[in-house]
Amino acid sequence: MPEPQAASPRTPDATRRSERSRRAIFDAALALVGEAGYARTTIEGIAARAGVGKQTIYRWWPSKAAVLLDAFLDLAGQAGEEGAGGLPDTGDLAADLKLVLRATVDELNDPRFDVPTRALTAEGVVDPDLGARFVERLLEPQLQLYVERLTAAQEAGHVRPGVDPRIALELFVGPLTHRWLLRTRPLTHAYADELVEYALHGIAPR
Question: Which residues bind DNA (predicted)?
């Protein structure tokens, strides 16, 4: 009789269990950071909330910051799938930018995104590797969408030929991020609209 074949080291059931565990860990990390704050969130707490051993977490991630980064990237990825396709291009640059900045305002005012983004931003200052991964995997792809939209506007004659889209996008996202980060004043749709008007038309008398 033929020898029975050894079981695959990665069976479908094991893969499904790993995915369920990973999903539970992501949900637990985001929930705990939202409830207790980043400083009081621990690997032990995440493991208990997710119903897994902390060794499972350490097998996949070296720190709670790394867990939170992947959990947030997963959350952002789900939101991105809902609005996939890049920035709108209706031919009206001002209207398109206002629409996108208003959506960004809504996201930054949503505790699901606000709390982990603040935690990762702060941790990225003291952990350069984490900060670099946060920029590379989340921020830069989002900024590239602005570059593509501004480049299209430039080709259509709606933006001056000599303007660098990578610098120009900072006129929109920079002030928005500054107000959100420092909480100087409320983040509103009206503010997003004003940013677009000031950036596109300047502040000098017309």
Answer: 42-61
Q: Is 44 strand, coil or helix? A: helix
- Residue 39 per-residue DSSP state: T
10-64 homologous superfamily: Homeodomain-like (1.10.10.60)
Give residues with Cβ within 8 angstroms of 124, minimum separation 6.
Answer: 130, 131, 132, 134, 135
Residue 113 one-letter amino acid: F
**Residue spans per domain, the chain:** 10-64, 85-201
> Quick check: 145 and 70 in contact, CB under 8 A?
no
For 203, residues 6+ apart whose C-beta sits below 8 A from its C-beta are none
pLDDT digits (tens, 9 = 90+) for 140-169: 998 999 999 999 999 999 999 999 999 999
CA distances from 203 to 130, 161, 179 (A): 38, 20, 19
CATH architecture of 85-201: Orthogonal Bundle (1.10)
- This prediction's pTM: 0.79
Three-class secondary structure of residue 142 per DSSP? helix
Residue 75 has a pLDDT of: 87
Positive or negative: CA dihedral 184, 67, 41, 131: negative
Residues 171-176: contacts with CB under 8 Å, at least 24 apart: 171/195, 171/198, 171/199, 172/97, 172/101, 172/146, 172/196, 172/199, 173/104, 173/143, 173/146, 176/101, 176/104, 176/105, 176/108
| Alpha-helical segments (H) within 37-92 | 43-50, 54-60, 64-82
